[in-house]
From TrEMBL, chains A, B:
Cofactor: Mg(2+)
InterPro entries referenced in this protein's UniProt entry, alphabetically: Isoprenoid_synthase_dom_sf, Polyprenyl_synt, Polyprenyl_synt_CS
Protein name: Geranylgeranyl diphosphate synthase, type II
Transmembrane residue ranges: none
Keywords associated with the record: Isoprene biosynthesis, Magnesium, Metal-binding, Transferase
GO molecular-function terms, A-Z: metal ion binding; prenyltransferase activity
Family: Belongs to the FPP/GGPP synthase family.
């Protein structure tokens, strides 16, 4: 039996599923179906288009809706959303490899190196990263200097100070017992770079002022931390429920392992509350991003 | 005893070693010495700054000298030369990994995954690629739309139609017996993308016309094919002489294996002759690139 939702929440869920469909359609154009012998193109497509929450693209597109108060999603926003999802997919492909997390399942399917071999997994990731940078440099309807800024932001989010650093911290520090702050630091490094990049992309497209940009980044950071905690909490659920290897975090020093699930849930609430305050301070406390927070709060965990 | 060289060749060798020193100095600034616990930064530095021929940076900088008839190397050229060398270094780090060529030595030292672990090798490569794209988007003294074009060219050279495709071909096709054209095709895919990108970068900085650009790309392709053949010929030399694993190509279908070294040398000569013709057609048959060809011809192989 379908649960009756309040109208606004129903509207929001429809908005979200429309946006997801638009992102998937555009990704399908960027990464067209390839002949089976083109393993690189197939791996790029499979790693990116497999069923996912598309949270980073959504974050970008919902931010853009709130800033522009516009119902239409501009092509530039959609392309940048695809670039973010490609970088995210590349990072997942690499994180799953035997020399990293050695995962067997992702999004309900065998991981890319298990489907295509480790060599193709590495090369496909490099190709996805390259394509994402090219998309950022070619964003329709933005001036050239914005294009250069988009590339630099994407580089920052991806490179030695971004995702790379987060994954390295997680690999090297995750097995040791650590104080709460150290765990929160690793979580921040792992999840926040692309969350922050998503709102920065939207803010650049909408030509937002510095103060609003600061609050949007604060929002993205808090949301990222909440998201990472929810991910850790979901590690206790079965593989079937979450579609990827579960129990991978056993023995890993996560907030959940350190404080227990109840305190972790409390932390999630605190991050979401701080995220909401940033939206209010940015003058968009009543928009789509606020609804995204409600949606997170309502999530079972 | 030093061998007496003709004046022009001596001048050229001095130019080359000055440029190499400038590239290395600038790379040292982009990739500063990191504390030992920062394995990512250390791997990025070690993978890029280890002794190398710097052929791609030289190609860019010598092309720029020929096009601009200028003795000064502009900062933009030097930065782009560094970006090319970073992408090249990232590709070598990945190619050497156990899931690819499984090499133990590179540039006279243990390969990056042997020094730092496979996880750091992968992450360091991603960070180098990201930094290279950021440099291309930030090139001093170029207008913003040139920056966008530089990023797109670098993406083309690196991604699914560039280095990635070349390495994939080499891995999957290299073990089979192939006709000469198929081998030449793989060689073209492996070596030419960054050679072509180097001359395209220089041509963009110098605002070169389309006809000259076409000949420069023809030149880069012929030089790349000659270079790959020379590399295959050197595989017969000892590890000590070439500083990387030798004999890796045993059983691999190279031009050398197919036709023997004498015919391979003949092919080198033919590629270099065609490269020279492209320089003449581009109106720079008497410049630094022509001297680079002479230098290649004089190389012992």
């Amino acid at each position: 039996m379908a649960i009756a939702l309040p109208d606004t929440q129903l509207d929001f869920e429809q908005t979200v599923s429309t946006l997801r469909a638009q992102v998937d359609e555009r990704l399908d154009q960027w990464l067209p179906l390839a002949p089976v012998q083109d393993a690189i193109a197939s791996a790029m497509r499979e790693g990116t288009l497999a069923h996912g929450k598309r949270i980073r693209p959504l974050l970008l597109l919902l931010t853009l809706k709130d800033l522009q108060r516009d119902t239409m999603v501009p092509r530039a926003g959609l392309d940048l959303a695809c670039a973010l999802e490609m970088v995210h997919a590349a990072s997942l492909i690499l994180d799953d490899m035997p020399c990293m997390d050695n995962a067997e399942l992702r999004r309900g399917r065998p991981t890319i190196h298990r489907q295509f071999g480790e060599d193709v997994a590495v090369l496909g990731s490099v190709a996805l990263l390259s394509q994402a940078f090219s998309i950022a440099a070619s964003t329709a309807g933005t001036d050239a200097s914005t294009g250069n800024q988009l590339v630099r932001l994407l580089s920052q989010a991806t490179g030695a100070q971004g995702l790379v650093r987060g994954q390295f911290h997680d690999l090297r520090e995750g097995q040791r017992a650590r104080p709460l702050e150290a765990i929160a630091h690793t979580n921040r490094l792992k999840t926040c770079p692309l969350f922050t990049c998503a709102v920065e992309f939207a803010a650049l497209l909408a030509d937002t002022d510095a103060s609003r940009m600061r609050h949007l980044k604060g929002f993205a950071t808090e949301l990222g931390l909440a998201f990472q905690l929810l991910d850790d909490l979901s590690d206790g659920l079965s593989t079937q429920q979450i579609g990827k290897d579960s129990g991978k975090d056993v023995g890993k020093s996560t907030v959940v392992a350190l404080l227990g699930p109840d305190a972790a849930r409390q932390h999630v609430e605190e991050h979401l509350a701080r995220a909401e305050q940033h939206l209010i301070d940015a003058g968009i406390g009543d928009g789509h991003l606020a609804q995204l927070l409600e949606y997170f709060c309502a999530r079972p965990y």
